From TrEMBL:
GO terms for biological process: fatty acid beta-oxidation. This is 3-hydroxyacyl-CoA dehydrogenase. Belongs to the 3-hydroxyacyl-CoA dehydrogenase family. Residues 4-181 form the 3-hydroxyacyl-CoA dehydrogenase NAD binding domain.
Amino acid sequence: MSRIAVVGSGYMGGGIAQVAAIAGHEVVITDATPEIARANLDRINAEADAFEAQGLFPEGAAAAVRHGIAAADDVESAVVGADLVEEAVPERLELKRGTLARISRANPDAVIGSNTSTIALGQLAPPVENPHRFLGVHFSNPAPFIPGVEIIPHDGTSEEAIATAEEFVRSVGKLPARVRDVTGFVLNRLQYALFHEATQLVEEGVASVADIDTIVRSTFGFRMPFFGPFAIADMAGLDVYAFCYASLQEGLPDRFPTPAMLSERIAAGRLGTKSGGGFRAIDAARTDELIAYRNRAYVLMARLLEELGPSPFDDPR
């Protein structure tokens, strides 16, 4: 790939364009009007200058953005000749459908990704000509700085299109993860499940909003830059998780049933890292290496947080 088009040049689309240009792709952006596209290009360039000055972008990144991104007057001229097109217009079904139809008519060959965060790809695919090349490529905000990207095929997406999207994501320094086309995908189902439980705890008078934020970011959230929920469970011990589920069920029997996949692994003797793996497989001989990595990661995270100081949410000034 060398030419990338981004349709929708707001903060998400602009961030995607920035990382693509920094990676060496030729990028064309467009928006609802030529004026909006040009104004957003000015903002994208100014942001890149500021990010480089702040040390958030590497040296030379601002120049790569300034020379690598151009603004087109309309969707059709933006996507002609593109190898991959990323749709990043606002999260409204009919707007996205109309935009995707225009993209697919103007370029019959490019892989087309949608940055949708909530709309099922099966709902977006019908107006796309040659829909085998269409899938979700969901960056998170702020796109320049969040590494993970959901790759979401619909039922008709080809393996070639998936591979092309994953190649693009890796080329811009991000981590692709494949997700089935289900309501909420993975990121938002997990994010909103946590938020929903947090609101219930506040409503029940268990803890304040500020104290819940403190607990999340300084305990299990502290681990999550390094390990996902299954790896954390494996390190804790799946038998320990089962005991905790039993305790939760005494007071909250309907909200915390023990997951079947947890019980199945325990019954099979797969208790986590202490048995050579539970959800994630790991050689028992590497347990000491894993513990050393974990401990060093947490110490370095604590040092980083100390260096940064409290966020404006938590700064008493």
